[in-house]
Structure of SDR family oxidoreductase:
Amino acid sequence: MDIVIAGAHGQVARRLTRLLAARGDTVTGIVRDSRQVADLESDGARPLVLDLEHADVGELAAGLRGADAVVFAAGGGPNSGIARKDTVDRAAAVLLADAAEAAGVRRYLLVSSMGTEQVAGGATPDGVDEVFVAYLRAKLAAEEALLPRPGLDTVVLRPGRLTDDPGTGHVMLDRHVERGDVTRDDVAAVLAALLTRQHHEGVLELTNGPTPVEDAVAAQL
């Protein structure tokens, strides 16, 4: 497969790139900082330096042509403010969707977050930091902008709290699961498995659990 990953220098994205490259897929990694090119090349990706906060649809679509799927794993980062939660976590995800449609790429995997339902309908959850509320709102808005599009086959993956523990290879994956932790290794493994399943669409929540990754993904078909 030929796969394009937006936010390719992120921790999950780099793990995903290495998995895909190891199984023989072609990976293009989108980053905005040219200083990250060497890291992407060492992971096995072909770097595309492009700032998704300032690129236009045509410019991005040119980098997607011929791809089988796109993965949005970009984010404003833990130290970014409210404004960048919107410009990256929402607007850049929508831009990638627009460009994918323009380039004729149907398969779209959006890495979102558990907890987005807390801000549905404009709700503000108690005891949650305002920046994290903005993050959840941006993720929910991206989900709502992508899922209805008939030109895309979209899977929204909502991981639980991410950890850097070694991957277990076992997860809980379903439309709704109890909150919990999940390793970044296992998130990447689930994304890699989902990319081979061309007929699944919709929202899936993910934590570590008892089921082998491949079995958990196959059960969602």
Q: What stands out?
A: The mean pLDDT is 95.
